[in-house]
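Show me a record, fold above all:
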Amino acid sequence: MPGIDVPLADAMGEEQARQEAATAELRLQDRARQIASDLERLVKDAVTKRVTVEDRWYDDLRQYHGRYDATTEAALRKAERSRLFVNQTKPKTNAWKARLSDLLFPTDDRNWGIQPTPVPELSDVAKTPNDHPDERRRQEGEQARAMMEDAQRRASAMQTEIDDQLTESRYGIHAREAIDDACQLGTGILKGPVVDSRTRRSWGKVPAQGPDGTLIEIDALVEVQDPRPKYTRVDPWRFYPDPNGNRVEECEYFFELHLLSKTELRRLAKKPGFSQDAIRRLLKEDSREAPPPWMAQVRSITDGDTVSVEGKFTVWEYNGPLTAEQLCCLYTANGRADVASEYADIDPLDEVQIVVWFCQNEVLKFGIHVLDSQDPIYSAFCFSRDKGSFWGRGVPSLMRDTQSALNAAWRMMMDNGGLSTGPQIVINKERIEPADGKWELKPRKLWWARNDASSGAAGLKAVFETYAIDSRQAELLNIIKVAKEFIDDEVSLPLISQGEAGAHQTQTANGMSMLQNAANVIFRDAVKDWDDEVTTPNIRRLYDWNMQFNRKDGVKGDFEVDARGTSVLLVREAQAQNLMTMCLQFTGHPVLGPLVKAAPMLRKTVQAHMLSADELIKTDDEIAKDQQSQQQAQQDGQQDPRAEIEMKKIEAAMQKAQIDAQTKLQVAQINRDTELAKLAAAQNLTVEQMRSKLQMQAADQEHKERIFAAEVGFKDRQSARDRAPVPGQASPGLGGAPVHPVQPASGTRFAP
């Protein structure tokens, strides 16, 4: 411009450029805040639509902890009625939780496995024998077998790697907590794999400067970042899925609530990926908010504390899609224009799965979905699925009506007991008055008769009148019993599944096994749901994570997840019985015995009884060493192998005889029970009544036999006395020898 120096023009241009850059930066920051604001509106909609579910959860928690709601408690207190709560919900819920946890997470086995993907053509080629006349087919068979063995080794290595990662992240603990949530509230949530960038300490060689100035290596404690996958349990109260989805795979997005204090927010700023400037602004403004209403309500239900909860920073974690334009805006606003350029060529209509942490329109952290598969990182297990909602129903919800009936019957029973224990007394105040001026009844109390009262005892009879309240304990007790039976049916948990025999006592092992198998049908369904909704997607995502990030090439391959909770864990009791039978019948059999792998069968038997096979059974190497030692001892002692063979034959014969005797005894017991059941059915009696009737008949028969034996003995003794010689006379026997009384025949029973 004319009249302006060149340096001044350059300075004005630089200032204008800085202002334009600052304006562009503000626009980017505003755009990023606008994205956070849009997510805030989205999460508020999810929170509003979950209110009805939270009301049901309040009732579930009150019922689990044995508490009435405020309205019922106030009404009972005002009416001075009993406020007792017969808590059958808590033991039923805990029984379901314990049963599922024991089935799905045993101490000696896992409920999943990794298997190579089957290739039928490769399996057919691998069956080619080594001595095949066609050289080309023989080589193809060897290559196929080598490829299958390599795939199996890689699958085993991947299974070990995943097992170590799950153990390190305490997957079993988090999964059991999710099962507890599902049993109480209806839905349990697991999250993973998420990267846990923990710092590990280890000793290693580090460069250092020596005394003479040279570079040397010394041992030092170093800290290294070791990103590892982990799984965590998510509190259902803090989880807000897409209200329009009924399953995880149907939900478009998920929100997870994190309530953080100042200390926790400062600790969050030190983790990689979080914006320290945004967290610094939040701390400076001290914009803590009141916690959600459910937090104080849950605390008042669980421990009775009604003190208000301290305000915290409401931080939301969003897992869902963003457009490519929004993603570029977030990267540019955070000074990562180079990364934003990678997404600039994406069609604006395309979406990218992303994770965003935000709080009060401040984006704290964002990043691309950790897995290339873009699968959701959440898994949800519903105890009883509601097909019209994402949230299932738990044990308290299923038995709520019957629990209410049980409580009502118990309260009426207590109120009736309090009224019926003593009579209602009516006093005519016009005819008497208490000597102490008080109208309460007490022992040996004096009463003054008024002057106008009739004289004599007959005149005072109408002064005190008593009226008894009828006791209804028997009728109310029947209601309680029926309610408890209904509870067993509603939650599908009979007494036999809780370790109690119940009303029917099963007499045979086969009958008990049949009842147990019938009770396991419901558990099979629940375990199968866990396999389909939790185990398979979780292990599959962890497999994808290892294929994408693991640096060990020996664990990678084309594998599939084998969820075997129902096939391995649930039928463990039946497997234990079958394995015991096989051990007794087959191992000592002269023909089948040599065909049985004794050591693997024994290991499976020990595992089926929930014991550690490694601690009780010798390994293959130890068995081989023992066999070598025995062979060496036989060679040194020059023992005759025929003698050992004969001893084995004798032992096998003894075992067979023992097994045959046991089998005959079991068959006889089964036949006896069968005939007894037929006889009971023919006479329209129960088995217990028939057994009692037979016992009474046996006792009556024994009594008659005793009487008959006593009569026979008495007659024999009387006959002997009649035939006895008179003192001083000769016996009519041969040669004058005395005649002895006749002894009873063998087998005659006498009364004691």
